[in-house]
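Q: Here's a chain of 707 amino acids. Please give me its 3D structure as tokens.
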Amino acid sequence: MDEFLNPGTSVKMLSENNCPILAAKINFMRKLLIGLCLMGLFITSVSQQQKIDSLLKEYAKGGSDTVHTKVCILLSENYRNTQIDSAVYFAQKGLSLARERKQGRMEAYAQNALGYALYFKGDYQGSILAFRGYYDAAKKNDDAIAMGFARNNEGNVHIELGDYVTALERYHEALDIRTEARDTAGIAMSYNNLGYIYKDLGDYEKAVSNFLYALRIFEKQNDQKAIAATYTYLAAVYRRKKDFQLALDNLNKAYLIQKTQMDYSNMGISLHAMATVYGEQLKYDSAHIRFEEARILYEKNKDMRQLALLSADLAEIFSRQQQYDSAVHYYQQAIDRNNSIGNKRSLASIFLGKANALLLSHQSAMVLPCLDSAMNIIQQTGNKEDYKNYYKISSDYYTKIGNSAKALELYTLYNTYKDSLLNESNQKAIADMQVKYNVEKKDQQIRLQQSEILRRNILLGSSLGLTLLLALLGLSYYKRQKLKQQTRLQEEIMHQQDMATKAVIEAEENERKRIGSDLHDGIGQLMSAAKMNLSALEDRLNFANDQDKLAFEKSISLVDESCKEVRSVSHAIMPNALLRRGLSNAVKEFLDKIDSQVLKINLHSEGLNERLDTNVETVLYRVIQECVNNVIKHSGANMLDISLIKDAEGISATIEDNGHGFNVAEKEKADGIGLKNIHARVTYLKGELEIDSAPGRGTVVVIHVPL
């Protein structure tokens, strides 16, 4: 067995299982393969340096032709992973020369090289401007392929900034350009990009679907490097899903292709990714083996950028193992490596990681410089996630040193950024719905275009005697396609309506949870703290008379009542019983709070011993809550019967009161939102709703939801 290729079994595990011969063979094979890889890397490294030296000699010759400009661009590309400042310099030099010499195509390539260099340097706004310049120059040259790349690359930068809405716009612009230009490889790349966004948005099924679509195109083109890259993207999805075996399987597929292609740089990236998967599985021995193998490849390839990433990931592994001194060491190593090449892309998060490790290892005196360094970078990048983490760690630091006022101030800022990121998450969800519709529409257009091309080829290749027959068949085919298209369009409209309803209901529930949590954890805790402080003051104050003391005690009582009211409201917004014990108990707890002298309520439940789907429980609870509130507010009833019955077909709810009733038809035409909300929620569950009422004879509401 080749252990170097199979991360599922480590040498240490085999030796502990008393298999010394097999372990020795594996060690030999592993060392042999590493030796072969290092030999190849040495050759590659020497070749790379020779290439740079050759380019520098060519650059020193000067000249005013296209070759001299192109040399600057090639030097920028070769310096990306080792000397970022040099990469920026040569890209800017190439751009300046291209503009002076009016070399339009070279100007486009120089803008692209500058965009990449600034991206690796962490100057995202500058990178965006460079890629826009790349697009404008490519457009002047009527180069559709380059235009697609420019929009694609700009979208990548917006992903780094967390701006998914703009990133989606750029990716779709790239897809449109590539589709029109019939750039098959570019189309596949765009689907990979869309899959990457779906992965970040948490729609893993759609992410995998896009990656597999791209994979099929790359396999048809036999583009081995792109195939391997797509396997790593699939692995990232499965890692997010915690399906670690599938993640490792895809990384092994990528590694085998890269090994065959002698792609040592990407071999290191695949091993690095395997190490992070093992780390999440808590298989730290296997993780460290893969990190070491990746480190060897990176060092031999002089890839300082990847070495910096590896150090940061190693620090994270040691933090998980609570080996904070080792974590601090590797965080500092990551900082030093990034500084050595001028890479500021992830420095803020690394400084924050080091600060947190120092705090956990009780080295508080060294925390503040790390936090200050992080803030200097965050103020340049404006990354909200880094701001949030900075304020959280800073709050923990000031709590640790006993400055509770400063800690509270920073914790308030942490909550502000957390809420801001939550709102951005809602924007991502909306963008996700839009992109699903757009991608499906693009897929349909591509299929129709391919079908049209096939039909034309058949017509052109047919004999003259079959022309009439083929025309009739084509007409019949067109009518069938049109009918199918109308059917698909109708289904899509219904699907979009369902999606919209679901988004509204989920957004409403998320907002209820957030408000309930903020009331309980924020205002509630502050009120409790105020009451505790007032109670502590009572023993230390000397009241002038009994009236002052009585007034003070009334103040404490008012604060206590406010605490109870806040707790009551937060529980009504998102009842704990629903979260803990299910629908039946939540409804019972809600009904128990209603004064039985005003409204006598009988509750009967059956078959609800097991928990239902969370969405079903939440929506049914809100419907029953709305119905009961309507009875209390409008019906004038003194008796209410509620039954909840679950059987093999689904769950049925009946709410019947003895109030004065109402005209159902008139009520449904009115502008009130109560009944509309009930209808929308039941429809969302694919259920049925019946309301039977008339003036003077009460109301019966019957709901049936299939499970």
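Q: Can you summarize the key feature?
A: The beta strands are 600-606, 639-646, 650-657, 688-693, 699-706.
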